[in-house]
Structure formats: C-alpha cells, structure tokens
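YM 10:42: Protein PBDC1 homolog sequence, as discussed on the call
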Amino acid sequence: MATQFDADNADNLGEIEMQFAVKAVQQAETYWSLLEKIPGSKLKLTKFDDDIFTCLLEAFPEFKEPANVAQISEEDMKSAAGKTKWREFCEQFKDIEDYNFGTLLRLKASEEYTQEGTIFAVRIQFYAIEIARNRYGLNDWACKK
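YM 10:58: structure's back
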C-alpha cells in the first residue's frame, strides 16, 4: 500500500541537494555563455517570454522602470510580503516545465555571476527578471566586453 509523501517531515538528502546545485550552476553557466555571444536584447528565453514579461509588469509595476530590474533586492524578494507576491506570480506559470526548479539569479544586471552577487531563486523568477533585463538591453554589455 502506498503511503502519502510528507514534504514537511522529509529528510534533506545531501546527494539530492548537490545534484540540484550542480544543475543550477550548469544552467547559469549556459545562460552566461549565451550572453557573452548574443546580445541579451536579441535572446528569447522561452516561447512564453511575452506572457511572462506582461505578467511581471502587472504584478510588479516597479519593474516598468529599468533601474528597478537592473538591481534586485534579495530582501524584498524574500521578505514575507515579497514571498507572497512572488508565489502568486509564479503559480500563474505552473504549466511551464520546471517553473519552480531552483536556479541562480544575479542581483545586478551589470555584473557576472559571483558568489556575493548571486541568489537562489526559482526558474520562473529567473525568466521574469532576465526577460525584463534583456528587453531593456541591460545584459547587452556582456556580449560587448
């Protein structure tokens, strides 16, 4: 007889966490490699880019201002209010494969991935922020350096 999985009481298995971390780093390296070769303003990250961008601006009108997406506040994203707002945003995209898979997000569009300047986020947050950055041309510098 199958038992119900209880995520709240499940053990954290180091091996599984390490596999997730490796996949997140690989995704970040792949994305950065693309930015070094193609201006971000010419990149399309998903077939849902238009919908993600529109919903981002509806949920977070502050991101209509490029400066507010150029530098992200981890505190704002991970505060109780921020988590609630982002959770509501993310749930709109549960049909996108791996929308809630862990990934790395740069805090500043003007910097590469660094240990101090990178946070852990879910994939749809990464898509939303990076699609906005690309549309505003904030990542184009990586290709020109």
